[in-house]
Amino acid sequence: MKAIITGMNGTVAPVVADVLAKHDIETVAWDRTKVSTTDESAMRTFLETERPDYFLHIGMGSVSWTEALVRLCQEYKIPFFFTSTVSVFSDDVPAPIDKDAVPDATDEYGAYKIACEQAIQALDPQAKIVRIGWQIGTEAGSNNMVDFFTNEMKQHGVIRASREWYPSSSLLEDTAEALVTILLEHEAGLYQLNGNDRYSMYDLAHALNTLHAKNWTIEPIDEPRRDNRMATDVVLVRPLSERLPL
């Protein structure tokens, strides 16, 4: 079997590709230097050449690209899978954030993901959309929580982490496993993944400092005060309380 996957230069997609390989699913990256994201004829040729069994849209791009991908996947009867984000919600939405809560983000990234979700739902009711939280990788250099804390140390010489901020988050490897489980085993619809059952940003900074022997200096603060944790239903990533040394 084969899956086309976008976003292979990002944080999540390469790990998802590793998990797919364990299921004997070959992954083909959408290389934007070779395949257009605006020329629908080129997109069609790529799909016809590769003939994938699944399409995973994990990368960033225009809403119009997403719409074109959904239409083409419907035409070729290819199941469409999209990763969205907790960032479709503003900090005003109370936790636990139910998947039926109305997305209300107004920042550029959140508004982009909302527009993609709405376009997919309007075009393909059989698509799978999965909102994920802040990913916890193992190293700096990509868009994950370890990278964030590492940069905070480099810039300020200390990590000031709020004891009153509870983000939706999960270990990157656990997220990838859950995404593939949804892809292969679950019905169409909207899903939310969050593994943070109890930890503040201050707790997470301490846990990652211990886990990766980073020797960070961590200072507790009480701002911001927010709880961005999503409610989950069918598929759960492993809780951080089982994964981190706290």
Question: Your description of this structure?
Answer:
With 246 residues, the chain is an alpha/beta fold. It has 7 helices and 12 strands. The protein has a 6-stranded parallel sheet, sandwiched between helices. Helix 1 (13-22) links the parallel strand 1 and strand 2. The longest helix is centred in the middle third of the chain and has 16 residues, at 108-123. The chain is globular, with a radius of gyration of 18 Å. Its EC number is 1.1.1.133. It comes from Exiguobacterium indicum. This is dTDP-4-dehydrorhamnose reductase. Catalyzes the reduction of dTDP-6-deoxy-L-lyxo-4-hexulose to yield dTDP-L-rhamnose.
Low-confidence stretches: none
The value of Rg in angstroms is 18 Å
Reading the helices and strands in chain order gives EHEHEHEHEEHEEEHEHEE
Query: What structural category characterises the helix and strand content?
Result: alpha/beta
Q: Report the major sheet.
A: 6 strands, parallel
Helix content: 25-40%
Spatial strand order of the main sheet? 2-1-3-4-5-10
Distance between the termini: 40 Å
